[in-house]
Specification:
This protein is an alpha/beta fold. It has 13 helices and five strands. It has helices at residues 29-36, 42-53, 55-59, 63-70, 74-83, 89-105, 121-142, 145-156, 168-182, 193-200, 219-230, 267-289, 291-309, and strands at residues 161-164, 187-190, 208-212, 234-239, 252-255. It is globular. The N and C termini lie far apart (60 Å).
């Protein structure tokens, strides 16, 4: 029987999602464009690239002027503004004016929305700690506990678990699998896309495949998840873009906070924080469900390593 790709609903590429949150700070605009560009249409990309490349010039334009400059329509300009996190074009213009003023003032460039190149290291520590806390709080607030519970149930009863991730998400995949291995589950992390696909072919009903991709559009992660989905495995996605392509092949979608990014704080930093929270929630949930076997397995793994920690 041919399996159909799961339909997804919700905010489209030109609509602000239900958890859009406050508009991004002006300094975060360029990074926001880079993060969301893959999910935009080509016409929306032209608008986004224009405002990120020349904030002062675009701030002086009406919605009609910007549409003419980019060869798009007024509706496309408004949809782009909303996708970038602004309620409308007027709010985007205000952010562009603020960014232009900051650039013209000669202030130190931002590394995050509130960290500048010349900040003392103590301030960097405090501000990063605050930013990480916000990412964790946003992820926790937006996490669908029904979806989380269903994913925990699938993992706890799985014959075999494959986890896919590349780059920083690959490190998170390894973190999850080593935790699951220590409580006696059969789990493998795959960062090599060829190996991931060849292993996904072997999955069946009763197995679980889990993909980790902040963008929701990483082909090397989506392909093995699709193969696992088509072979009957239960599939789970951890992503910052629940409307992204990865969700088409996911039975359960766990959403992480959309990263607040800027020039020297790439998506891999803040997205990893949210991903690790979700991974820890999955692990603890599975350990609860399998406590009778998990506790002895965890104890045995501690014993096996104890001599390595003695002086």
């Amino acid at each position: 029987m041919t399996q159909q790709v799961k339909e997804t609903f919700g905010a489209g590429p030109g609509q602000a999602g239900p958890s859009a949150g406050p508009p991004p700070a002006p300094a975060a605009l360029a990074a926001k464009v880079r993060t969301l560009a893959p999910s935009m249409t080509r016409s929306m990309q032209r608008v986004a690239e224009a405002v990120a490349g020349d904030p002062a010039g675009c701030a002086a334009l009406t919605v009609t002027g910007l549409a003419e400059l980019t060869g798009t329509s007024e509706a496309t300009v408004v949809r782009t503004a909303r996708l970038l996190g602004y309620p409308g074009y007027r709010d985007l213009r205000l952010a562009l004016a603020g960014l232009a003023a900051q650039q013209q003032s000669g202030r130190a460039p931002a590394i995050t929305t509130d960290i500048a190149v010349d900040d003392p290291i103590a301030d960097v520590v405090a501000k990063l700690a605050y930013d990480e806390q916000q990412t964790l709080a946003d992820t926790a607030a937006g996490l669908d506990t029904a979806q989380l519970g269903a994913a925990v149930t699938a993992l706890a009863g799985a014959r075999r678990i494959d986890v896919y991730g590349v780059g920083a998400s690959g490190l998170v995949a390894q973190d999850l699998t080593q935790k699951l291995l220590r409580i006696g589950l059969i789990a493998h992390a795959h960062s090599d896309p060829h190996l991931a696909v060849t292993n996904a072919v072997q999955l069946r009903g009763g197995d679980v495949a889990l993909a980790i991709t902040h963008s929701g559009s990483t082909g090397d992660v989506i392909e093995p998840l699709r193969v696992a989905f088509e072979h009957g495995a239960t599939t789970v996605a951890i992503t910052g873009r629940p409307d992204g392509p990865v969700a088409q092949y996911a039975d359960h979608v766990l959403t992480t906070s959309t990263a607040r990014e800027s020039e020297l704080r790439p998506a891999a930093m803040s997205s990893r924080t949210g991903q690790l929270l979700v991974v820890d929630c999955l692990f603890v949930g599975v350990a609860q469900r399998t406590y009778d076997t998990a506790a002895p397995a965890l104890s045995a793994s501690y014993e096996a390593l104890a001599h390595r920690h003695r002086r």
